[in-house]
TrEMBL record:
GO terms for molecular function: branched-chain-amino-acid transaminase activity. The gene is ilvE_1. It holds the Pfam family Aminotran_4. Signal peptide: none annotated. Belongs to the class-IV pyridoxal-phosphate-dependent aminotransferase family. Its EC number is 2.6.1.42. Keywords: Aminotransferase, Pyridoxal phosphate, Transferase. One of its GO terms (biological process) is amino acid biosynthetic process. Its cofactor is pyridoxal 5'-phosphate. InterPro entries: Aminotrans_IV, Aminotransferase-like, BCAT-like_C, BCAT-like_N, Class-IV_PLP-Dep_Aminotrnsfr. It is an enzyme of class 2 (transferase). This is Branched-chain-amino-acid aminotransferase. It comes from the Bacteria.
Length: 332
């Protein structure tokens, strides 16, 4: 019988992990850990303890947001949702809002990039391999700044193909909380890839469409109504909510009749003037095919273009939605 793996020295361990990470390590810029009480820019050190409830129970909440041209977009909306999610599962926040913002900014600065994605995770903490959360020492915080590149989710100029997922939808309690237990979401993403689609969306027992693995669905009906499924049964998307607010300008201009939260049935999607996929990373993408049926003649519609333009301008120019990270004049 083989003697099994060897026990490594700290130096050998780090060397092997570094070799394993390879070139992909360059996509991870900086990492804050409350366990260490600081920030590292060494990808080998960007790790969560194996006994953290986040790792072996999925017990935690998270947010993803982006820094664009030196400022974080829509940070307050993301932190509001993070705090709501933590409260729903009885998880105490390890830092108040002011301290949390300072940590996020410091991590981005350490990463040295004006454009980056940020993944923020709050865990129940370390100290036990059991399911009992009372045995965890304290809540922990992890913040990772990593590469913001062109979205691999689809090309807004060409549109995306979407289907209905076979993965059962989450119970509303779990769907409305952004926890780290994302197995259904992962399976939806896998299903989309297996079927050669860009996205799949859920459908509940009532025949109403819900959400994608990490995105919201929106529809422009034949009557000119912009609809996003109500957030009482799905996760309220920060980008989708902001899109609805910006769409008010199109309502005022007569380009839309209404914009708000409303159910979207399968039939509504199949007969929609336009369908949209909305999220933090892809922004707004037009759907050109739904369950094999062409939407809008199979080409991106004008409202998807207008809404995307409004959102992109908001991301780059709305000082009220931008939290500065880099002082003016600093070039990374």
């Amino acid at each position: 019988m083989s003697p099994g793996p060897e026990t490594l020295s700290a130096e050998a361990w780090d060397r092997r992990v570094r070799d394993f990470c390879g070139a992909a390590a360059g996509d991870r810029y900086a990492f804050y850990s409350s366990v260490a009480g600081g920030i590292t820019t060494d990808p080998v050190r960007m790790a969560v303890p194996a006994d953290d409830h986040l790792v072996h129970r999925g017990d935690g909440v998270f947010e993803s947001f982006k820094c664009v041209d030196g400022a974080i977009y829509n940070l307050d909306a993301h932190l509001d949702r993070l705090e709501r999610s933590a409260g729903r599962i009885g998880l105490a926040m390890p830092f108040d809002r002011e301290a949390l913002t300072r940590i996020i900014i410091a991590t981005l600065r350490a990463g040295g990039r004006r454009d980056a994605l940020v993944r923020l995770l709050v865990s129940r903490g370390t100290g036990t391999m059991s399911a009992d959360p009372h045995r965890c020492r304290r809540p922990e915080l992890y913040v990772l700044a990593y590469r913001l590149g062109p979205s691999s989710a689809g090309d807004p100029a060409r549109g995306v193909r979407v289907g209905i997922s076979a993965v059962p939808v989450k119970h509303p309690f779990f769907a409305t909380v952004k926890t780290c237990n994302y197995l259904p979401n992962v399976l939806m993403k896998k299903e989309a890839g297996d079927r050669g689609l860009h996205f799949v969306v859920g459908m509940d027992a009532r025949g109403m469409l819900t959400e994608g693995p990490t995105e919201n669905l929106a529809a422009v009906t034949a009557d000119g109504e912009l609809r996003v499924p109500p957030p009482d049964r799905i996760l309220e998307g920060t980008t989708a909510r902001r899109m609805l607010e910006l769409a008010g300008r199109l309502v005022e201009a007569g380009e839309l009749n209404t914009a708000g939260y409303a159910e979207i049935s399968r039939r509504d999607a199949e007969t929609a003037r336009e369908l949209l996929i909305v999220g933090t990373t892809p922004d707004i993408l037009p759907v050109v095919e739904f369950e094999g049926r062409a939407i809008g003649g199979g080409v991106p519609g004008p409202l998807s273009v207008r809404l995307r333009e409004l959102l992109e301008r908001d991301i780059r120019e709305n000082a009220g939605r931008r939290t500065p990270v880099w002082e003016q004049g600093i070039v990374s």
